[in-house]
Amino acid sequence: MSDALLVLVLPAMLIWPLLLMLRVPLMAALADRGQPRFPLDGLWCTAPLPALVLALSVDEGALALDWWLFGGFWLLDGMRGTLLVVTALLWLLAGVYARGYLAGEQARAVAGDEAAEARLMRFALLWPLTLCGNLLLLVAEDIASFYMGFSVMTFAAYGLVVHSQTRDARMGGLTYLVMAVLGEGLILAGLLWGAGSAGTTTLGGLREGMLEAPNGVWIGVLLWLGFGVKAGVVGLHIWLPLAHPVAPTPASAVLSGAMIKAGLIGWLTTLPLGETAAGEGFAWLGRAMLVSGLVAAIGAALYGVCQRHPKAVLAYSSVSQMGMITALVAMGLVAPTLWPALSAAVVLFAAHHGLTKGALFLGVGIGEHPPRLPAWLLWTLLALPALSLTGALASGLDAKWAFKAVLHEGDYTIVVTWLSLAAVGTSALMARTLWCQWHVERQAREEGLEPLVSAMPLAWLASLLAALTLPWWWGGELALRGLPPLAELPGLLWPLALGLAGSLGVWAVARRRPLHLARRLPPGDLWWLLVEGWQRLRVRGQGSLDRLVSARDVWVAWWVARERDVVRVLDSMTRAEEWLRRHAAVLMMGVAVGLALLMLTST
Amino acid sequence: MSGGVLLLATLCTSLFTALLIFLLPERAFRARTGLNLGAALVKLTLVAWMVWGLSRGHAYALEFPVLEGLAFVLRADALGIMFAGLSSLLWLFTTIYAIGYLEDSPNRKRFFGFFSLCVASTLGISLAGNLFTFLIFYELLTLSTYPLVVHRGTAKALAAGGVYLRFTLTAGLVLMIGMIALHVLAGDIRFGEREILAGLDLDRRPLLVGLFWVLIAGFGVKAALVPLHGWLPRAMVAPAPVSALLHAVAVVKAGAFGIVRLVYDVYGIELSAELGLLAGLVAVASVTILYGSLRALAQQELKPRLAYSTVSQVAYIVLGIGLFGPLGTIAAFSHLLHQGLMKVTLFFCAGNYAEELGIHRIDDLDGAGRRMPLTSLAFTVGALGMIGLPPVVGFFSKWYLGTGAIQAGMPWVIAVLVASSLLNAAYFLPILGRLWFLPGPDHGVGEWPEERRLGRLETHAWLLVPAVATALFSLVAGLLAGMPFSPLEWATRVVNTEYLP
Q: Which of B38, B141, B183, B436 could be joined to B121 by an S-S link, Cβ 3.0–4.6 Å?
């Protein structure tokens, strides 16, 4: 039964969003001119439904398609299933949310603003396409499908990032695209190298082949960095804080909640995690990952609290959280024996972060358009996912306890301590997010309240509910460990307390003497250094660049001159032929005389 | 129908069409169109028939002696029929496109006559059974494309035609010298008789190496290998269907196909590897790939950028040949088809922009996606394929090249591939960004250089349909790469049956 369901629903989950995408221009073409329809209708929102049905009804299964690319092999297992359900749910809720979020755009389109209409159309087209890529990469076990899903998602999402077409949006889009292309290149190199050495077309084969390949570690490094662009590895994370604030809020939610998890999926499916046979090289790779993860986790928190825009703060929080996940994944290389227990915790953490971060991003829009709720209730609801993300309650507490217990069992207390320090940073980040939202909300509240029963608040509330109760409704491996015993609570909660106390302290100081850190530390950190460095290099290198250009011109001119010489020789040859023809008679005579002389002398 | 007759019929379809077109008066538009399309369809059917026959084990061959020890040989082997299939399929689309493109322009009789002659010679190249026959059609191709390149008759076109002719005729001469020397050395070598050269005395080896590079220099001009590529960007003055033809179907491909024949069927891949020829090929190809991409990046106009992109992409085929091993061979053979599909799409689209909106420069393309959505979609598919993103066919070539390089023990080739992908992204993505994400005249910003409304659709249907069709082909051939008779599957079959080292 479940096999038949898989065979039907797995392709349907990929085809359905594409059909809905094709429907958008079709409906626009059929509609009367000058009467713009709202492309984000109820049916459009159902794009992730088949995926959700699949994830909820089928636990495990595989589908092989010989005719597809190099031979498709799609797989559903515990890890993929969990991330699939989270991804599909988040996309569904964010899609519903988008209906409300873009209603203003629709009003402008109806009023005759063609640019708004075009933007809306583009959003309606690219949203399901991005979703389709995201779903494909989740279930793909063959490399070609995986890479296809990854790149479809990456490039389609560019359109979502630049949606508003402002200068900032273009800037964010540019960083997004530059980093994405760089990442694709690294991934391609890693995949080709790995698949070539192992002679395989599946990710599983790649992972095993990497262990035996002489340069396996370098393949691992390429894949780590390539996927790291998406997952926000420190140094490669610069697109996150620039792209998130400019994207429409529902797009930010799926970007941070679902799409950056694609990098994690890449690591989980390609790196030889938990392989005791992996050599010392991979252990060193693990150590590098661990350090970079912890640096990202703590550094992003420190930088993020200086941001002003709530979405930029949340983006830095994503970098920080992904840093923690990176550190946990790294443990699979450093301490392979821990991995079987740790992998479940990593998946739980990722799933929890996906939904919770989604709820937080959707909450930013709610703060800008507050629904008809009493202020205390609204703020409680906004604070709940923030608290959960710090690991103080609900799914966050569950996830934190899960990996902390495993690490304690494996005697890696030092890692736990560093992760707890990162959690202090998370608490500060969350305090900062809510603080930023506070101002916005006060302003918006004076302008009037939105009805509670409409797309945006309902989607937000649903995402909140889903995020907080994730381990309990999803069950399976995730809920195995359950909530921590009471005695462990102080050990889990002190980062929150410390973070809050620190935030209060800084706030008290800043109230008296403003720090103006936000102005000095723009979002995108290293990007600006790179841009400045590049410009300086250009100014300084202008002379050598000019020399290079003139050298190239000389080079091209030299070749063209040689070409002309050859042509001249060729042309003179044809003239020579003409000369020969004109003097043919004399020449023949000469030849005859010569021959005769030759014959005479030889005899 | 017996084998030889079928071959001859396929070849003569285009030859007779050429003859008939020259006989028809200039104003007989309908008759000429019908004749063109009919012949293209008949030829496609005949080639499809031969593909089917070959897959069931039939043989098609025809030969007659010309001189003592020299024969004119036509033979359909799996490799040749692959190239013939590509050229007949793309020919159909190019014919349709050319009919739409040249509507109401003068000298159509001359154009289509030479056009058909050109397809006949391409078919002859693909079905030739030895170097002698190959060379005959190769020269015929040069001569029949010249009138197409200079079709417009402007001073610039004539100058480009002059350059073209000088490059290719000299190359033909070099090729002939090499061929004659080879003939003197080893007699008439049929394609596939690899044992003849392999069995030569060891002291002849240096001579063989020298001849190899002479022949490569001859083929390298048409295949546009750096530094023999100078004619290609200048031939861009030709009308769009001719550019499509030069770049995707006939001329450049004929050069690449010649190198394939030389390495696999005359020298044999083992002998080439033993003589150390392949490393040289890989080096030449790598330089060409990177140089072509860098030069493409510097172009401000659409067609020259595509031209340099061809220089770089065709070198992929040579790179695949140079990677000693089955995967590299599959890459070379399948890229022969894949590059054709993608590049023809891109040129059709470039032609559409020029015809409908008068756009030649890249910075005029802002917002063209809204005005011409289907053309722009087709262009997007082609461009993404060139970058090497799945599911477009370009990814598969890149995949086999990369994995083949690892098998051949040359991991540095992956660096070349990735660098080329990044460069491709750097010169194609800005175009796509302009098409789809920048506001243009249709959003009320500026205006098109020279807008004509050629049809009820976004442009003339005869221009639109081929572009969309070839884009679909390059997409579907990738998605269904595992199906029988897909380009990749056929290339794999050719390699497995004939060229396993």
A: B141
